[in-house]
Amino acid sequence: MTTTRDTSRARRAAAVGALVAFALGGCGIRSTPVPVDAGGAPSRVPCSAPGAEGEPRPGDGTVRMEVHLVCGGAVAPVERSVPVDGTGTDRETRLATARELLDELGKNPSRAERDAGFGTSVPGGLEVTGPGAGDPAETLRLSRDPGGLPPFALAQIVCTFTGTAAAGRQESVVLGGPEEAGGEPLAYSCTAALRGSPDAARTAGVPLP
């Protein structure tokens, strides 16, 4: 036999259920009779540079240098042990250093670098030579026009060369394309805009005085 108290409780339960359903519907959430496994929370790439692999030994012809790779939508440095021969003239040392660094940029990142979120946009097979006829002494000419490289590739090269023997220890790098293609070399600086925005590469080069 149903009592007045039982009827009242049933009405209150129905009212509460209706309110819950209304609230869920108003929030755009569909109720479900079974739990839903949405998976783990999305992971974030750390972009924390790992240490250089292998300790350079005295006399082995390598030095620790920073090579700039792409990580998290920007260009950031990692340490590599780079072979460097400093026994030649300044021009020979500049070109040798540029070639070694460019070779490092074209390599696939190590497993530790990949795990930390680093990659490279520098195309394999890219080459660098010294100044052409009439170029300033510090000019480095690439086998492709700098403006035609992937934007982050240009940022990687500029920021890796800056402050090293490849750039004559200067705070800018003078780059040009193939001499036979013509075109004046331009000065590039490793600015925050260049490191963090692909679009900045389009206007990064500055004519030489």
Describe the structure.
The protein is α+β, with helices and mostly antiparallel strands and 209 residues long. Helix content is 29%, strand content 16%. The strands form two sheets. It has a five-stranded mixed β-sheet with strand order 3-4-5-6-7, covered by helices on one side. Strands 1-2 form a two-stranded antiparallel sheet. Strand 4, helix 4 and strand 5 form a beta-alpha-beta unit. Helix 2 crosses helix 4. The radius of gyration is 29 Å and the shape is globular.
Residue runs with pLDDT of under 50 for 5 or more positions: 2-10, 12-44
Q: What's the arrangement of strands in the largest beta sheet?
A: 3-4-5-6-7
Structural class: alpha+beta
Helix content: 25-40%
Q: Tell me about the largest β-sheet.
A: 5 strands, mixed
Q: How far is it from the N-terminal to the C-terminal residue, by CA?
A: 102 Å
How much of the sequence is in beta strands? 15-25%
Report the average pLDDT across residues: 78
The rounded Rg comes to: 29 Å
Quaternary status:
single chain
Principal-axis shape: globular
Number of strands: 7
Give the helix tally: 5
Question: What's the helix-strand series?
Answer: HEEHHEEHEEHE
